[in-house]
Each structure stands twice: as structure tokens, then as C-alpha cells.
Write a structure and sequence with these properties.
Number of strands: 8
CATH superfamily: Gcn5-related N-acetyltransferase (GNAT)
Strand order of the largest sheet: 1-2-3-4-5-6-8-7
Number of domains: 1
Distance between the termini: 21 Å
Shape: globular
CATH architecture: 3-Layer(aba) Sandwich
Number of helices: 5
Order of helices and strands: EEHHHEEEHEHEE
Amino acid sequence: MKLIYKEIVIHTATHDDAEILTTWWNDGSIMEHAGFPLGIGTTVEMVKEQLLDTSKVRLMIEYESIPIGEMCYIPIDDTTVEIGIKICDQAYQNRGLGKVILSMLIKHLFDIGYQRIILDTMLSNTRAQHVYESLGFIRTAIHYDSWKDQLGILRSSVDYALSPEHFKNYMK
């Protein structure tokens, strides 16, 4: 898969991307929001193996030909898909790129027939919640103190869902 919009390219991750994915996933400052403040302790070989799993589509995000983050989507059934995103390079956060990048993926997923897109984030990640809600996602549940991170700290999460009629596309 390859999606292009202006300076942004989203493409299926390959073995060539395993090294940067490993670097990002082992960085606790990047992975903290996902409950891994110490990183996930993976290797390039393990990441290459994960990329072979076709039940989860891993995508790379490039801006002006520079890898800045990654996304994934997991089909739940014929009509529902779960997504995730990380803009890993902090220099590209808080620039409005997340809304456009997510718009690219969301439009593609609706175009290929999905009718419902779901995701979750930590309740403390208000920046992500703002982005999701601006795209039209509707909060469907809050799970208070429902899981522990690597340090044993209780975390809360919030679930979101989006249907085509609520989607606000930021590609202009």
C-alpha cells in the first residue's frame, strides 16, 4: 500500500524499515503513551518477524522523504478496523500533520469498504483525544485504572469509533 498527499507518504513497512522501528519501539519517551515507558525491548530480527504477520498491517509515515512515524491497522471483521498511530519524531509533532496523516488512512479504509474505525488511547493523552475528536471520532467508553504499565502504574484508556458520516477530512 502506498498513499501520497503533498509531502506525506504512507507505505507498507518492509524489512528495510525494521531498524528505525526497532529504535522507536525501544525508546521509552516514544512508547510511554502506549504503556511502555522503558520501550519494548525488541530487536531488528523480532521486528522483521512481526512485519511478516499479515493480520496487522504496519505502515511507515514519511514527511519530505524523512521517516517520522508509523501506523497500523488491524481488520476486526468485514466492516470494522482498528487503527493506531505514532508520530515518533518529536520535531514533527504539534504541527497539524497527525490530522492529515490520519485523514489519508481513514479515507483509504472507508474507500476499501470499512464502515467503522476504532481506536483507543490513554485517558491522559489529551493531545491525541483532541486530534481524534477533531476528525469526528466519538468516545464510546472509558476504562478507569484498567491496566498496569511496565512500572506497575495503573492506567486508564478511552475508546473511540468513527463512521463515514462523521468523518472530517483534513486533506485540503
